[in-house]
Amino acid sequence: NVPLKHDSEYVIDGKIYGMPKAKIYRDDYNGPAVVGDYVTMVPHLAELDYKGNKEHEVRMDVFSQKVEVAPGVSYNAWTFGGSVPGPVLHVREGDRVVFKMKNRSTEEVVITKPFKGASPYFDQIAANQLQKHQPVVAPMPHSMDFHSGTVAADDKWATIAPGETIEFEWIANYAGTYMYHCGTSSVLMHTAMGQYGAVVVSPKEGYPTDKEVDQEYVIVQSEMYLEQMGDEYIYDHSAALARDPSHVVFNGHVSALSENPLKSNAGDRVRIHFLNAGPSGTSSFHVIGAIFDKVWAEGDPRNTWYGMQTVLLGASSSATVEFIVPEEGVYKLVDHEFADAERGAAGALYAGPR
Amino acid sequence: NVPLKHDSEYVIDGKIYGMPKAKIYRDDYNGPAVVGDYVTMVPHLAELDYKGNKEHEVRMDVFSQKVEVAPGVSYNAWTFGGSVPGPVLHVREGDRVVFKMKNRSTEEVVITKPFKGASPYFDQIAANQLQKHQPVVAPMPHSMDFHSGTVAADDKWATIAPGETIEFEWIANYAGTYMYHCGTSSVLMHTAMGQYGAVVVSPKEGYPTDKEVDQEYVIVQSEMYLEQMGDEYIYDHSAALARDPSHVVFNGHVSALSENPLKSNAGDRVRIHFLNAGPSGTSSFHVIGAIFDKVWAEGDPRNTWYGMQTVLLGASSSATVEFIVPEEGVYKLVDHEFADAERGAAGALYAGPR
Amino acid sequence: NVPLKHDSEYVIDGKIYGMPKAKIYRDDYNGPAVVGDYVTMVPHLAELDYKGNKEHEVRMDVFSQKVEVAPGVSYNAWTFGGSVPGPVLHVREGDRVVFKMKNRSTEEVVITKPFKGASPYFDQIAANQLQKHQPVVAPMPHSMDFHSGTVAADDKWATIAPGETIEFEWIANYAGTYMYHCGTSSVLMHTAMGQYGAVVVSPKEGYPTDKEVDQEYVIVQSEMYLEQMGDEYIYDHSAALARDPSHVVFNGHVSALSENPLKSNAGDRVRIHFLNAGPSGTSSFHVIGAIFDKVWAEGDPRNTWYGMQTVLLGASSSATVEFIVPEEGVYKLVDHEFADAERGAAGALYAGPR
Ligand SMILES: [Cu+2]
Ligand SMILES: [Cu+2]
Ligand SMILES: [Cu+2]
Ligand SMILES: [Cu+2]
Ligand SMILES: [Cu+2]
Ligand SMILES: [Cu+2]
Ligand code: NA
Ligand code: NA
Ligand code: NA
Ligand code: NA
Ligand code: NA
Ligand code: NA
Ligand SMILES: [Zn+2]
Ligand SMILES: [Zn+2]
Ligand SMILES: [Zn+2]
Ligand SMILES: [Zn+2]
Ligand SMILES: [Zn+2]
Ligand SMILES: [Zn+2]
Ligand SMILES: [Zn+2]
Ligand SMILES: [Zn+2]
Ligand SMILES: [Zn+2]
């Protein structure tokens, strides 16, 4: 295990609690907005190429980008790291994360240039220009709430003003796939504006099927509440309160997983870490033509379900699902709540021959 | 087990994959629209009077019927086999299904005559005239997606034109209660129009309580989205998109399970295979006066829950529930989401003396 | 175990069924509206200071109170025992409850006086004047449906007229946290008007963590459907049918758990029995800054989930959750369906130093 590091820390049932106070300060940092060796863009997950536990230095700055959600539909999103959803962080149960976030909402931050090549995240976002990022300025207080962290929320998830940086640590005490999001009021608005993503905490001893898995992907479902305003689209708070989404999307765009389908081959075992980020709706995740051989509720290997056609997930719930790809062909992925599938909650997996 | 049958087939973890390509053709078949020895009408389930595995020849033709949903409320449904929901297919884990479906949407198909006596399904539909079937013509492409099958969806679940027949095979690789439905776009519309039903795949080794069960029933919940148009009712796509159902029903009619209540006796163990067909809503299934002694999520005997007052099911999720009937009397069955119970999602079980 | 008591009773799988018929009569009772040694007000739970099983004499009379739901928003609630939600009953698996309820909807019943000191419930309601109870008269038939009881619903849950008393018995055959509510038609209306609460049936052998738990609380979530009518608020049945709540609340008031937060200390193990009373919506219960170490679905110790960020509960489903309080600080509790959190489904837990 990563050892205790600060005087304030203590252990209960093998888990570390009592992180030191968060630091909030101002600096002139203007480097890469996303830092971390195990940080990728959905649907990708970085491989954990180390044994045991590790301390991760991670940065996800907040800034605004105009992003596309559907053909012809873009809005000025509030983002972690420039994309909606934000970057995927992969760690192992027991790892320590030293996290930094600068609120750069007053700056025009360019996400795809000049950082190409700097990390898997930048490579992947450069390779997938579906969201068509354009920097915009939208000064606003923001915060970061990692569901994967067990800390005092009033301290670590504190709201910071534009220009401020917050720095805190958390331990990945529990395996699973977790939501992170901005926790600044109105949380409904801040999440709906684009501030959410996934942390995958792989179990210390792995999942029992680790050696059989051929592909491993991450999908984040979310609702968009946009209304047209002249040529533009803006967030519609009344629609968000009424649970009446304009779009429901996998990985931030109605076409994210159909323009760029997941890939596999007949006979493969595919694992998907599926997070329903909400902000309000449920998801009934289903793969057309397949049955989930295993489902780990919330991604914990102790929560095993078998042989499921569909898995129901509440807002900010996740499941790690696995299925055998039966044959060469095309398998659509849907929220089987068809009112949401019609709004865009659909994608595809293409399977080559065995 | 049913052995491998085609060169394309292979086994992974004891399950058979790699079914041969679907065949689509035209013929002049105009025989019984539903064929199958283990095919019944809800709430009935055929007894599996064979040992081990079996190959089933099953037909469920598509055609339209005007059906009643509530007193005075009928609409021109698109159906599998003439009823809403469609027939219940019962097989055993490991069985092979050779399935045929003719799209007879251009024909007036009479469901209750002259096929009375031809199979349990026809007997049961003739005995229960609540839906008051009347043949109508509604030419339309359709398809069949069995959640119980693990196959390439673009091949087996292909859409066929009026007059065409599709033929394909699938193996019941996983035990459980599964939805089937038309997968032709708009799936929201095709399912809401009436094209859904249940397949019960009994576990190879059974459920641990098989010997104690006194009655076994099937309930399919679904939402109807109908609007009045003069004297008629028609499907309301806006209401379906808005998740604003006009009716929510058990077994296709607001009175299906109150006009014809389930039957049992005090002290009996009752098993219900409950499927929430959606197309979009959740169901919180509850039996008033009883507690579910066992709940098998998705009908898989490995997914056991105990002592539940209510089971929450997403769209296209199922559960196999069992309860002891405490006393002689009347037990209402409800979706405990009372906004839906008020729309009709209610029924009853009548218990005689011990 | 509490032995069989009436000739009609019999045992199946160690559980007692076959309770005698309910009695309905008129008397001139005008004593305390709530009776029971193990009856408290949310979020409190009485300690079971006895070994083995016990017979409980419990009364919860029905009468109306004007209660506050949010600052400036009061309505004439229909109540069990004067509060919304009603009193919490705590028993042990196997206990017998002899229950009496008088329909006093024609009377002005004073809840906080003169019964102060009479039982934990009265002490607690007197100490927490957030709902600002004022007696009102609202003659109406009512009934009581305990989800914790296994009985003939048409007999025990029978509707009684104003002035009548109903008396029946039930056995707590199954451990777990259960909803009770008025089952009189329209059930949507009677529950939305305020007639619901929780029964906690502690497992015979306890939960495996009983010795580690430092605090034990009860939270009941529910939706309110109120519309303004001049200076008053009244129940809005159209909004209830449309699932468009005006308020979503923990323990009956938008500020119940923020004005009077739950209390603990860093390092504590906190247990919450969480019931989603609906009447229609789901809840995605989450504690900001914590992860649920254990979740027992429906409160049954055989239904264990581990390491969950959020637990999804349908209408009339419950979970018993436990978490370690990581540090001194403030932890907000929310329905992570943020459209509902914005309507009031939020509270807090304050943690002192370790
Ligand atoms: Cu924010
Ligand atoms: Cu959160
Ligand atoms: Cu169709
Ligand atoms: Cu489907
Ligand atoms: Cu109920
Ligand atoms: Cu009532
Ligand atoms: Na959904
Ligand atoms: Na299954
Ligand atoms: Na429902
Ligand atoms: Na229970
Ligand atoms: Na909710
Ligand atoms: Na977890
Ligand atoms: Zn890629
Ligand atoms: Zn924010
Ligand atoms: Zn499917
Ligand atoms: Zn029958
Ligand atoms: Zn169709
Ligand atoms: Zn009940
Ligand atoms: Zn108190
Ligand atoms: Zn009532
Ligand atoms: Zn959180």
Task: Give the topology.
The structure is a homotrimer of 354-residue chains.
Chain A: E1 10-12, E2 15-17, E3 23-26, E4 34-35, E5 39-40, E6 55-60, E7 62-70, E8 73-80, E9 88-92, E10 96-102, H1 120-127, E11 134-136, E12 145-146, H2 153-156, E13 164-171, E14 176-181, H3 187-192, E15 196-202, E16 215-224, E17 226-229, E18 232-235, H4 237-241, E19 247-250, H5 256-259, E20 262-265, E21 269-276, E22 283-287, E23 292-297, E24 304-308, E25 310-313, E26 317-324, E27 329-335, H6 338-341, E28 346-352
Parallel strand pairs in A: 6-10, 9-15, 16-21, 20-28
Antiparallel strand pairs in A: 1-2, 3-13, 4-6, 5-9, 7-8, 7-11, 10-13, 12-14, 14-15, 16-19, 17-18, 21-26, 22-25, 22-27, 23-24, 23-26, 27-28
Can you tag this structure with a few keywords?
homotrimer; 354 residues; mainly beta; Immunoglobulin-like; 6-stranded mixed sheet; 5-stranded mixed sheet; 6 helices; 28 strands; 43% strand; binds copper (II) ion; binds sodium ion; binds zinc ion
Description:
Chain A has 354 residues and is mainly beta. The first copy, chain A, has 2 domains: 10-202, Immunoglobulin-like (Sandwich); 210-352, Cupredoxins -  blue copper proteins (Immunoglobulin-like), CATH 2.60.40.420. Chain A has helices at 120-127, 153-156, 187-192, 237-241, 256-259, 338-341; strands spanning 10-12, 15-17, 23-26, 34-35, 39-40, 55-60, 62-70, 73-80, 88-92, 96-102, 134-136, 145-146, 164-171, 176-181, 196-202, 215-224, 226-229, 232-235, 247-250, 262-265, 269-276, 283-287, 292-297, 304-308, 310-313, 317-324, 329-335, 346-352. Chain A has a 6-stranded mixed beta sheet, with no helix packed on it. In chain A, a hairpin with a 2-residue loop joins β17 (226-229) and β18 (232-235). The relative contact order of chain A is 0.15. The model of chain A has no long low-confidence stretch (mean pLDDT 96). One sodium ion is lined by residues 174-176, 298-300 of chain A.
